[in-house]
Amino acid sequence: MRTDDFDYDLPDELIAQAPAEPRDMCRMLVLHREDGSVEHKVFRDIIDYLEPGDVLVANQTRVMPARLIGRKPTGGAAETLLLRRREDVDPMGHVWECLVNPGKRLKPGAVVEYRAGGAHAPQNSPVVLRATVEDFVDDSRGGRLVRFEPCGENAAGVPRTLDEAIHAAGHVPLPPYITQYEGDPEKYQTVYAMKEEHSAAAPTAGLHFTPELIERIEEKGVKFVTVELEVGIDTFRLVEEDDPTQHVMHTERYHVPAEAVDAVRAAKAAGHRVIAVGTTAVRSLESAWEADAPAADPAVVARRFEDAPDSAAVSGRGDIVARENATTNLYLMPGSTFHVVDAMITNFHVPRSTLMMLVSAFATRDQIMAAYQAAVEERYRFFSFGDAMFIE
């Protein structure tokens, strides 16, 4: 297995520069793993592929205004992308793991100032945030530990908090291949995203859902539950090693609540499917599988799921367990085993990425590459704002 095995040719004009309107009218390629056949639908047709008793599990993380564009004391522009707080370095939460640009010039000790309004701020706009690079992260390709300090006062006349300063200076970051979008940044958030902002990128498979579609799905008897995985650094880094097994996944924080665990257990016990909305939901669920955990008793789980979500009685071995504030570096590639997920909603991914390897592990590489070729021929729209794929 080589990284080149997960490469493909994509015309630039097929990279989506804006979301579909309405969200659920994007196209959807359905891949049937049993025989490798494909169908061409629109996303709202997903309801036809769901059965009463199935469980949809989505990542409810919200994207933070993580893109900061400021200036060094010399006047040169500098860009910082917030990835995750590093409480292990600073319990107060002022140190973040970031990507910086230009990476070669932002070495430990470098200072950057950010003004209210961010990239479009006039020169007389006040400085609201100051950053000091403290250390490299793993390598010198742009990963840094950066300490941030808020500056000045907010509208109430009291010193700004760090979060207030980040919101004053920051923008929701779009992937670098989206170069033409000037619309509502809320379109890069899912309709079910939580209020707290924790991610550097959106769980884009969920962008296709509307409140009305979710309501119709639930009316059909399908359970809709959420987990959270804080999307981080590996969304922005492709696999550079020729041997993909040598690629190191960075850790991301995730949460799988008891409600989601009980819903998954009940669906499995009744012979229904667990359908992950996006690769981040897949990684959350599979990371929460514990091979040595006692397996839940199906009768007890089903009864408790009907009454109220609760911790189920257990027997046997191997089970999904609730996770709170846990971390994962799970790397799924061909040869990996999926213990929880039975079907997957996803987007079309960047070549040579860990996400291409994940979907190739869930189906087969040959099926995925054939499906992608069909999508190119049918002029599907690719990547974050692009069309959807349902793998069952």
What is this entry, summarized?
By secondary structure, the chain is of the alpha/beta class.
Task: Please tag this protein with its features.
392 residues, S-adenosyl-L-methionine, 9-stranded mixed sheet, alpha/beta, 2 domains, S-adenosylmethionine:tRNA ribosyltransferase-isomerase, 27% strand, QueA-like
Provide structural commentary.
By secondary structure, this protein is an alpha/beta fold. The chain has 2 domains: 3-63 and 183-391, 3-Layer(aba) Sandwich (QueA-like), CATH 3.40.1780.10; 67-169, Beta Barrel (Thrombin, subunit H), CATH 2.40.10. The protein is built from 7 helices and 19 strands. It has helices at 162-169, 211-219, 258-269, 279-287, 298-307, 354-362, 365-377; strands at 27-31, 38-42, 55-59, 62-63, 67-71, 77-85, 95-101, 111-115, 127-137, 139-150, 197-199, 223-229, 252-256, 274-277, 289-290, 319-320, 323-328, 343-347, 388-391. Strands 2-1-19-18-14-3-12-13-17 form a 9-stranded mixed sheet. The protein has a 6-stranded antiparallel sheet with strand order 5-6-7-10-9-8. The protein has a two-stranded parallel sheet with strand order 4-11. Strand 5 and strand 6 (77-85) form a beta hairpin. Helix 3 (258-269) crosses helix 5 and helix 6 (354-362) packs across helix 7. The longest helix has 13 residues, at 365-377. Transfers and isomerizes the ribose moiety from AdoMet to the 7-aminomethyl group of 7-deazaguanine (preQ1-tRNA) to give epoxyqueuosine (oQ-tRNA). It catalyses: 7-aminomethyl-7-carbaguanosine(34) in tRNA + S-adenosyl-L-methionine = epoxyqueuosine(34) in tRNA + adenine + L-methionine + 2 H(+). InterPro entries: QueA (IPR003699), QueA_dom1 (IPR042118), QueA_dom2 (IPR042119), QueA_sf (IPR036100). Its EC number is 2.4.99.17. This is S-adenosylmethionine:tRNA ribosyltransferase-isomerase.
